[in-house]
């Protein structure tokens, strides 16, 4: 008889080497070797990146991608690596500062006396980013990642970013005598605005922060800032090209009152241009005037057209968000309309209509959702995990449940049924045979003796009726009445016994514990009666 061939080779073990798929390093290896391995590990694809599983869908594909990367021996940075994640967080901050500083320095640098060291540092980071773009893989539409050096370089050089990145990162301050011409390259960094927004989205996603409105505000602020700076810079450039430096200086003196570096003059000029740029983008009338060259007004027309398109896009995005948010609320009012029609046809009294409205408003919190569809669309294993999350805190303080194993508790969770009681609803009546236990998720109930005396209040996290689970044919000793809208979970004796049918010894221990607690309750009750009879209340 031939042996069966083993076809599955498991790649998942407990060693660190199997996790990264890199060869293990000897404990006595030099520090340089260990650092090299550590750096190599950070360049590999990792599920730690928030977008990895969204792109590859399964851990098996991630493992396959990592294996290919290790076997290639390449030092190309994977776009879904840990290194790339933290690098994008850092470069997001650098891009944001660049998008603020570069146009400000280009347009108003002569008024601000900006620190050239800041410009050099920012340019150095951006030049390093150009280098990193040649060493980082990119995503393909076919849900694959290109990690070949030549294809990466070709993709970057012939894309829209390389020329703009390179020209906007050169330190023109060091060799340009007249910065009016060289400053125009600083405005090319605007092409990285989309990159900044994507970096922000990934960074906020890593920290589980919703970033939509933050990114929208950032987009609007940077566009207004760019238009304000470019709107001031363009007339200076046009004047310099057509009429020379002297005419440009006269233009500045006429418009600003001075050409000397002055923070007050800069503040006035910048705020005025921000106001003008906002007016241009919104295409509203303004009394703001500049004696600009004719060609500069073509720029204004472009700003106005771009502003209209931008406002239309932003409006559509916000309306779509609002529609999605209001959709569940609209469905709730549609449901209430149907309920009202039903009650009107059947002549419900006003008091009963009010209680029905109260029930629906509490159940759906003014936002309708189909709970059955939610349960039907997720697997049983996930439903069990959700139930455990919702209900575990409710039964953690129940003494008779303390000895029940976790796997049995999971079965108990399945049989818990949610019920909603309105104010003055009677949950349990005295002297009636009980068969269920109740857990209060939210709300407050009052416990009354059979004679009508209010004994105590129970609220969120409390429970009652536990004796009925293990003692059949025992009558209840109190009335339980809802004081406000209460959401409770109900567990009946039949379901509880079914969960413990294979745990006979455990069920007996629970019965003994319940019997002990019942005796203690009777003793406390007798003492209260004795105290009441000895010290009668004075009315």
From TrEMBL:
InterPro entries registered for this protein in UniProt: cNMP-bd_dom, cNMP-bd_dom_sf, K/Na_HCN_channel, RmlC-like_jellyroll
Gene Ontology CC annotations of this record: HCN channel complex
GO BP: regulation of membrane depolarization; sodium ion transmembrane transport
SMART domains: cNMP (SM00100)
Record-annotated Cyclic nucleotide-binding domain positions: 400-517
Source organism: Zophobas morio
Superkingdom, natural source: Eukaryota
Keyword terms, alphabetized: Membrane, Transmembrane, Transmembrane helix
Membrane-spanning segments: 85-104, 116-134, 155-174, 212-234, 294-319
A Pfam family matched in the record: cNMP_binding
GO MF entries: voltage-gated potassium channel activity
Protein name: Cyclic nucleotide-binding domain-containing protein
Alphabetical list of PROSITE patterns matching this protein: CNMP_BINDING_3 (PS50042)
């Amino acid at each position: 008889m031939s042996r069966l061939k083993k076809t599955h080779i498991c790649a998942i073990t407990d060693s660190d080497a199997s996790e990264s798929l890199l060869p293990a390093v000897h404990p006595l290896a030099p520090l340089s070797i260990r650092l090299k391995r550590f750096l190599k590990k950070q360049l590999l694809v990792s599920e730690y990146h928030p977008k990895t599983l969204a792109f590859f869908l399964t851990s098996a594909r991630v493992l396959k991608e990592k294996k290919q990367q290790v076997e290639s021996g390449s030092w190309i940075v994977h776009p879904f690596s840990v290194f790339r994640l933290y690098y994008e967080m850092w470069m997001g901050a650098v891009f944001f500062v660049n998008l603020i500083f570069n146009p400000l320095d280009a347009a108003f640098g002569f008024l601000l006396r900006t620190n050239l060291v800041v410009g050099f540092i920012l340019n150095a980071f951006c030049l390093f980013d150009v280098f990193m773009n040649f060493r980082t893989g990119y995503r393909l539409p076919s849900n694959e990642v290109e990690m070949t050096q030549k294809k990466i370089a070709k993709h970057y050089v012939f894309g829209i970013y390389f020329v703009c990145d390179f020209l906007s990162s050169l330190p023109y301050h060091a060799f340009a005598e007249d910065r009016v011409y060289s400053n125009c390259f600083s405005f090319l960094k605007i092409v990285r605005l989309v990159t900044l927004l994507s970096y922000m989205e990934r960074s906020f996603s890593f920290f589980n922060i919703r970033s939509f409105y933050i990114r929208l505000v950032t987009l609007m602020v940077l566009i207004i800032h760019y238009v304000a700076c470019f709107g001031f810079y363009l007339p200076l450039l046009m004047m310099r090209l057509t009429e020379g430096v002297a005419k440009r200086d006269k233009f500045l003196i006429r418009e600003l009152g001075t050409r000397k570096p002055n923070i007050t003059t800069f503040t006035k000029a910048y705020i005025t241009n921000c106001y003008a740029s906002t007016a241009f983008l919104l295409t509203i009338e303004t009394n703001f005037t500049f004696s600009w060259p004719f060609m500069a007004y073509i720029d204004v027309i472009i700003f106005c057209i771009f502003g209209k398109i931008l406002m239309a896009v932003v409006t559509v995005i916000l309306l779509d968000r609002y529609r999605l948010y209001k959709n569940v609320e609209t469905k709730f009012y549609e449901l209430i309309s149907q309920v009202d029609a039903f009650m009107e046809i059947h002549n419900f009294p006003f008091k009963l209509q009010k209680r029905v409205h109260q029930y629906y408003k509490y159940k759906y919190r003014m936002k309708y959702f189909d709970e059955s569809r939610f349960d039907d669309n997720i697997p049983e294993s996930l439903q069990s995990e959700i139930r455990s999350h919702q209900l575990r805190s409710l039964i953690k303080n129940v003494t008779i449940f303390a000895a029940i194993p976790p796997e049995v508790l999971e079965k108990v969770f399945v049989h818990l049924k949610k019920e909603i009681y309105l104010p003055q609803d009677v949950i349990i009546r005295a002297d009636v045979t009980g068969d269920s236990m109740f857990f209060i998720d939210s709300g407050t109930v009052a416990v009354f003796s059979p004679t009508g005396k209010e004994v105590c209040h129970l609220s969120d996290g409390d429970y009652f009726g536990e004796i009925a689970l293990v003692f059949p044919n025992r009558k209840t000793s109190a009335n339980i009445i809802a004081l406000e809208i209460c959401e409770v979970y109900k567990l009946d004796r039949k379901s509880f016994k079914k969960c413990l049918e294979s745990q006979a010894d455990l069920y007996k221990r629970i019965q003994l514990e319940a019997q002990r607690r019942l005796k203690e309750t009777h003793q406390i009750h007798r003492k209260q009666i004795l105290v009441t009879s000895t010290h009668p209340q004075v009315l």
